[in-house]
Design goal:
By secondary structure, this protein is of the alpha/beta class. The chain has 2 domains: 198 residues, Spore Coat Polysaccharide Biosynthesis Protein SpsA, Chain A, CATH 3.90.550; 34 residues, no CATH class. Helix content is 31%, strand content 22%. It contains 7 helices and 11 strands. It has a 7-stranded mixed beta sheet with strand order 5-4-1-6-10-7-11, sandwiched between helices. It has a two-stranded antiparallel ribbon with strand order 2-3. The longest helix is centred in the C-terminal third of the chain and has 15 residues. The radius of gyration is 19 Å and the shape is globular.
Length: 237
């Protein structure tokens, strides 16, 4: 089935960032952050084309690889803090459409998830393609919520809080682990025609690919970088 599917990965990487200046090329364990994602995508067995969407020629230079295509520099209006990621995806899909290039599946890989591996990418693609039955299905990567989710509280007003799950406090630990997940932002996947139609990866029929919570770190602050570096050092022993 994989031989009949054309798959492209989109890596969005703008220059601006509030939390960490030039975040996408900031070093993580001695390598620019974006290269962790580029290398994972390049080594995939299933991805046919990797598109880097950036507004910055320096990022394009750092991420340069024979298997990575930078067909354009993203317009400034699509690189602001307020820019929608979906507009960035549409911009890329429109570029393909103008070139009469079609892909069956889009895989979104954000550079802020550096601990997502090639194995994660390929396993999620295998899961998605093997189970896909309709045009409305998508896949997102997730990690399991903590066991104590039944203790989760929300603010009721300025002085009081209340349980979020009043009717589920008695859920067993096993039930809780099986039922609650958080998206980690590492992998989003959809049939291209499904994405064009619905403009979202969060549809009614979502497959999930579960990742370890430590590998699910999303780099937004210097503290996130430090945590990721510690994890990488522990893996290397």
């Amino acid at each position: 089935m994989f031989n009949n599917m054309k798959i492209f990965a989109l890596v969005p990487a703008r220059a601006g960032s509030k939390g960490i200046p030039q975040k996408n090329i900031t070093p993580l364990a001695g390598r620019p952050l974006i290269l962790w994602t580029i290398d994972a995508a390049v080594n995939s067995r299933y991805i046919d084309t990797i598109i880097l969407s950036t507004d910055d020629s320096n990022i394009a230079k750092v991420a340069s690889h024979p298997k990575v295509t930078v067909p354009f520099l993203r317009p400034s209006e699509l690189a602001a803090d307020s820019s929608s990621l979906h507009d960035v995806i549409d911009h890329t899909l429109n570029w393909f459409d103008n070139k009469s290039i079609y892909f069956d599946i889009i895989v979104l890989l954000q550079p802020t998830s550096p601990l997502r591996t090639t194995e994660d990418i390929d396993s999620s693609i295998e899961q998605f393609c093997s189970s896909m039955k309709s045009k409305n299905e998508t896949l997102i990567s997730v990690y399991q919520m903590p066991n104590k989710i039944s203790w989760l509280l929300k603010e009721k007003n300025e002085q009081f809080v209340e349980y979020c799950f009043k009717d589920e406090i008695e859920l067993s630990r096993q039930d809780i682990k099986q039922r609650y997940y958080l998206p980690n932002g590492a992998i989003y996947m959809a049939r291209t025609d499904c994405y064009v139609k619905h403009k979202t990866f969060f549809g009614e029929e979502m497959f999930f690919y579960s990742m370890d919570e430590k590998k699910s770190i999303d780099i937004d602050t210097i503290e996130d970088l430090e945590i990721a570096e510690t994890f990488i050092k522990n893996i290397k022993g």
